């Protein structure tokens, strides 16, 4: 049966990992080399059809800079899903992701569906976080794990499709 589901989604993660770029790739299939650091948060929506179901994503793209950290709860509150992003080329961003997971576990919605995106997979030669390590961590917290590139578009649609399939049936 055809149904429309509204899904509130929040993106979290360190500054510069590519949250806004992933959203821009997903929503508009484009990429901006000179993407500006987000101020506060930005909102976009996008409709996606997966297996006969229509998902209307309401996407809150948060700002990763430390000074905006305290705003995050406004955006993950009532979220059905969160994508926590790190960049495969910066180990520190992977460590920061673990802090976001802890915060969500403690203060976020109890039934929130989590996805971890290892972005900038096009920069393989600069990799600092192995796929195995990240996958193992994602499995340990029951999160979806996908390595993406907002630049090449690799796995970006897949990320949102796989996430859609993980949402509980209504
Ligand atoms: P904040 O808004 O400050 O939290 O950062 P952000 O996570 O939204 O990062 P943003 O999307 O603005 O991207 C930061 C920089 O990384 C920009 O120069 C992007 O062009 C670049 N970038 C984003 N995604 C990719 C990617 O997949 N590959 C490569 N090579 N560069 C990327
Ligand atoms: Mg941004």
From TrEMBL:
One of its GO terms (molecular function) is GTPase activity. Keywords: Nucleotide-binding. The keyword Nucleus does not apply. This is Rab31 protein. It comes from Capsaspora owczarzaki (strain ATCC 30864). The lineage of its organism: Eukaryota, Filasterea, Capsaspora. The chain holds residues 3 to 172 of 201 of the full protein.
